[in-house]
Amino acid sequence: MNESPPVLSLDRVSRRLSGRAIVEEIDLSLDRGEVLGLLGVNGAGKSTTLRMVSGLLAPTSGSVRLGGRDLYGHPEIAQTEIGYLAEDPPLYGELSVEEYLRFCARLHGLSRTAIGPAVERAIERCELGEMRRRLTSLLSKGFRQRVGLAQAIIHEPALIVLDEPASGLDPIQALRLRELIRTLADAHAVILSTHVLSDVLACCDRVAILHRGRLRHTAILSELDAGAALRVRVERPVGSQDWTAIAAIAEARALDAQHWRIVLKEGVPAGELARAINERGFGLLELRTDGNALEDIFVRIAGETGAEAAA
What we know:
There is one protein chain. This protein is an alpha/beta fold. The chain folds into two domains: 8-223, 3-Layer(aba) Sandwich (Rossmann fold); 229-291, Alpha-L RNA-binding motif (Alpha-Beta Plaits, 2-Layer Sandwich). Helices cover 34% and strands 28% of the residues. The protein is built from twelve helices and 14 strands. It has helices spanning 46-53, 77-81, 97-107, 112-125, 141-153, 171-184, 197-203, 221-225, 240-244, 270-279, 293-302, 306-310; strands at residues 8-17, 20-30, 35-39, 61-66, 69-70, 82-85, 159-163, 189-194, 206-211, 214-220, 229-234, 249-256, 259-264, 284-289. A six-stranded mixed β-sheet has the order 6-7-8-3-9-10, with helices on both faces. A hairpin with a 2-residue loop joins strand 4 and strand 5. Helix 3 packs across helix 4 (112-125) and helix 4 packs across helix 5 (141-153). The N and C termini lie far apart (42 Å).
């Protein structure tokens, strides 16, 4: 029996502009149930890559496949199989949240009978109930991002593409958004573009580091973080007994009531710690490696000069 193809597959994807390579020969794949962090400094080519993945910008060469089908040979599949959240969601200010989501559901081809349940489901998942009749022009940045995410998932796409979703959010808003993104992996494949290490550690299963338009490093976070010490900052004060109650933790040392140095048991990924913190209501504000692995790799790659990167 043949295995099903990955939800997303990029084969030597490149994009050139005026003869200059913006993105060069990227190979990536993503399965349902995975969250992939596309990590890179500003200008690394992340947004260009996401636009090609989303069907908004055709690659100069290479192929983008969704479920084994060529996206640019069958562009109609983007309507039903992709949900895209831009860094600044293009909302219609004269529409209420509910009206906007109904409009988006129609754009994605949902039937009249399916629109109502889909809107209700998206409003519930993104915690927009109290805002459903408010004009989108009157929403805070955090709620604008939630509405943008709601329109990206309203048609239950196979692939959800998020471009810097936490950009401009305060720490509490970013926390809530990360918790929501993590839950999406239950039913979707998710690709998350960011330049923030803590976003990757809190949300993702795998990481791909992009620099100067080239894919420089990929890794499974559970392998990268095994046995690593982590710095954790939480929203409310907790005690050592709260940490020792989490089976995944080998050691917890207080830096202060809300800052802790955590060592995980062998083979436990950082994502499992993030989920445990969220389940217990500690309020995860920051999760990062304590000066090893992913941070070291990212800093080394991001600090390369053009000559070194080309070597």
